[in-house]
Amino acid sequence: MHDHETQFLAAVRAVLDEAGFPARAAGSEGVHTVLHARGVMVGWMPQDITRLRVRRRGPRRTRKNGRADPPGLRRAFGLALAAAFRNAGYTVETRGDEWLLVIDPQHQPEL
Question: pLDDT tens digit string along 40-50?
Answer without folding.
Answer: 999 887 654 44
